[in-house]
Write a structure and sequence with these properties.
Distance between the termini: 59 Å
Largest sheet: none
Radius of gyration: 27 Å
Number of strands: 0
Structural class: mainly alpha
Number of helices: 18
Helix content: 55-70%
Amino acid sequence: MMIGAIKSCRSLVNFRPCLLQFSSLRSMSSLRTLEETVRAAVDAKDYQQIPELLGSFEEACQNPNPFSFLSNFPQNHRIKVIDEMLESFIPLRPRSRPKIAYDYLLSYSLQSLHPLPLALAILQRTLRSGCVPVPQIRLLLSSAWLERRCQSHSVADILLEMKSIGYHPDCGTCNYLVSSLCAIDQLVEAAKVLKGMSSAECVPDLESYSIVIGAMSTARKTNDAVEIIKEMVLNMGLMPRQGMVIKVAAALRANREMWKAVEMIAFLERKGCPIGFEGYEVVVEGCLECREYILAGKTVMGMTERGFIPYIKVRQKVVEGLAGVGEWKLASVVRQRFAELKS
């Protein structure tokens, strides 16, 4: 499965250069001039001029990468040069000024023979500057990560390699990696990265869990989504956002797994997580669709205890449904509760 994903990533990554081979000779000449100019700036350690140089050639700066000459450097020297470059960009203002340089450095490093951990360091600096990498980076990063994982390296080991070049894993970098894997439907691997972050001295935050749970819900992998929510609450002490609860509840409703949805809501209530009106409403409507009227009635009672009252059509359906299955007592209790809240 992972090998297939790597091949798919490679085919998409290699498609763009095929289109670019028809570029004009004039553009190629400009590119050579740009690469030589960037090389001269690197040799002179005049790194802060590089973003302006790249910007001035932006139209021609497509393929090959203007940092391609770095491949001629020994690996240790190449890492040192890129690290110096990244450090020199920190004081530049506005902070987005070096974005074009970050994008080309990321693209270059991710397509090199040994992309990690250097690409993760560049990504970290990019994100900390407030810049968002170009969309293609997600595909390149996912491909590089999956290929490395196929070599039997653990998540923690790969992330901790950042320390060997003077960097440390952080949530921003890991979250971008996780979301990139989710974007190509590598949800199992994304969940493994999430679980491996703590071993790499990087404690997942609410955003880390939200990315994976959201992707699992979209794919209707509800067992995994509910399990990760429980892990987040029990092990990390984090409470899910309302939007996350609604998304998981909607996936459970789509799968007609209303018992599981009610159990999830009950679990979150016990742990002190506030459930908003929409979260209850999705579950109640799902119960009605599945003709689980007793479940709907009990959920509505829990909902009203927190001061929420369903829409009038939902109230009518719950009471009528309970009466229709012979649950007259519960129907009467629910009707009475509605009357109390309306008064």
